[in-house]
Design brief:
Layout lengths: L1 H11 L2 H12 L2 E2 H5 L6 H13 L3 E6 L2 E6 L5 H8 L9 H11 L7
Antiparallel strand pairs: 1-3, 2-3
């Protein structure tokens, strides 16, 4: 379990990966759509997606010629249980997590 937690927390440590998770809270997205708001290469986004996939935080599925990403919300369960052991944290509530991410991450200007 420790190795799995290390992988999840390492994946969550990067702000780009947290932003990707926030985007996927809305709906499944094609990889190219995930990459659009970022000013980094598609290859760099793909590396972030591999890390999120290995951590079990997202899954990827090929539909035709397009690769889609989907949030796997249960992947945070083990981290939530571990944090509850300290008695200082509430269980992960995805709605509250989404509100937190909206506050913490800068809004993207779609104009």
């Amino acid at each position: 379990m420790s190795k799995d937690l290390d992988t999840v927390f390492a994946a969550l440590a990067d702000p780009t990966r947290r932003a990707i998770l926030a985007m996927l809270l809305e709906d499944d997205m094609a990889v190219t759509d995930v990459a659009e708001p970022f000013e980094i290469s598609l290859a760099a986004i793909s590396k972030h997606l591999v890390i999120l996939t290995k951590a079990g935080l997202i899954s990827q599925e090929k539909r035709g010629r397009v690769k889609w990403c989907k949030l796997e919300p249960d992947a945070l369960r083990a981290a939530s249980v571990w944090m509850q052991g300290f008695g200082q944290f509430e269980p992960v509530n995805l709605d509250a997590f989404e509100r937190f991410l909206e506050i913490e991450l800068p809004a993207t200007d779609d104009t």
